[in-house]
Amino acid sequence: MEQWYDQEEDIFNIQLADKPYWKSVELPSGVIIDVAKDGSIVGIEIQRASLVFSGDVKNVIQMAQEMHT
Known about the structure:
- By secondary structure, the chain is α+β, with helices and mostly antiparallel strands.
- Helices cover 20% and strands 38% of the residues.
- It has 2 helices and 5 strands; from the N terminus they run βββββαα.
- Strand 3 (23-26) and strand 4 form a beta hairpin.
């Protein structure tokens, strides 16, 4: 599993599996789920992440930034 945060685009991404995605499903909340052909979830992208992760939960973004640098 890999996670990263793009501060410029304000996107938090969690890569769950190292296989190609077949299609993306965009939810109304700004969450995008990448699905493989076998139906498994391979990735989750959260747009406008700084609004989703606030307060104590904002540590999730800070940890992803530290891991990515």
